[in-house]
Structure formats: structure tokens, C-alpha cells
Design a protein that fits this description.
InterPro entries: YtoQ_family_protein (IPR019884). It holds the Pfam family Nuc_deoxyri_tr3. This is YtoQ family protein. The longest helix is centred in the middle third of the chain and has 22 residues. By secondary structure, the protein is an alpha/beta fold. Helix 2 crosses helix 3. Strands 2-1-3-4-5 form a five-stranded parallel β-sheet, with helices on both faces. It has a domain of about 100 residues: Rossmann fold (3-Layer(aba) Sandwich), CATH 3.40.50.450. It is built from six helices and five strands.
Length: about 150
């Protein structure tokens, strides 16, 4: 069995690299949004033309990025959504909801301090992990049936 896993959420830490590296011996194909913050913010105006208003600048970028995000989530077997410490990731919450609406297997990744704020998101998930290693262990178990240890 092979898995397609979409890694969504915060872009300020190396959690994606930890999961990819920890899963290197598994049959997993990973995808994610564009994690270059400037490219993600400016893709709409870089491709479709400039905007005088920051609202329309962001609006264009969000729509262009949504093409990639929708495709990645739709094609995924498992969607992992990471909520980081530094910023509120409204887009991550939207991605989690979109994945849940599509019936995707959802793993939410965040620290204990976000438990209350994300209780509805957590309730839609099949697993709520606190570390990237736990996500790797879930993927390993799903693919091999083996427990850690």
C-alpha cells in the first residue's frame, strides 16, 4: 500500500522535513502548499498583474494558491495540518475543514496549548498529534501495522 500525504499549515519550522525524513523508508508521496512565504504572498500579482490595494493583492494570491491547495487535498489519502506557535493559521483551519468535508483522513498537529482553541478542528480529525514523530509513527502503523518500539 502507498499513501499520498498532503502537509498543510505553518511554514516557520521544519516539521515537514521531520516527517518526510522520518518516513523515508515508507511508501509515501508528500505534497504541500508553496512554503516560500514571499512567493506564496505575491504569486497572484506576479502572474496576473499588480494591485494598488493590499486586499486585492492578497485576494489574487489566495485564489492562485487555492488551485494548488485544492488539488493537493483532493488527491491526498491523508491530510496533516500543523498549527504552529507563532501565528494564527486561519488558512490551516480552512484546509482542515476542507479536508474533513471531502472525507479525507485528517491528522492535526499542534501543542497542548492549542487544545481548547482547536477543539472543533480536533473533533473532526482521526488523530491529534503533538509531535512530527507521532505523525511518522501513525503513517508507519497505517502502512505496516507495526507499533513503535
Amino acid at each position: 500500500m502507498a499513501l499520498k500525504v498532503y502537509l498543510s499549515g505553518e511554514i516557520h519550522t521544519d516539521w515537514r522535513e521531520q516527517i518526510v525524513e522520518g518516513s523515508s523508508d515508507l511508501d509515501v508521496q508528500f505534497d504541500s502548499p508553496v512554503t516560500d512565504h514571499d512567493a506564496s504572498d505575491d504569486c497572484g500579482v506576479a502572474i496576473l498583474g499588480g494591485e494598488n490595494s493590499k486586499f486585492w493583492h492578497d485576494h489574487k494570491g489566495a485564489k492562485v494558491n487555492a488551485i494548488r491547495t485544492r488539488k493537493g487535498i483532493a488527491d491526498a489519502d491523508v491530510v496533516v495540518v500543523r498549527f504552529g506557535e507563532k501565528y494564527k493559521q486561519w488558512n490551516a483551519a480552512f484546509d482542515a475543514g476542507y479536508a474533513a468535508a471531502l472525507g479525507k483522513s485528517l491528522i492535526v498537529l499542534h501543542g497542548a496549548d492549542h487544545q481548547h482553541a482547536l477543539k472543533e478542528v480536533d473533533a473532526a480529525a482521526l488523530a491529534v498529534a503533538e509531535t512530527s514523530q507521532q505523525v511518522v509513527q501513525i503513517l508507519r502503523y497505517v502502512l505496516t501495522g507495526h507499533l513503535p518500539g
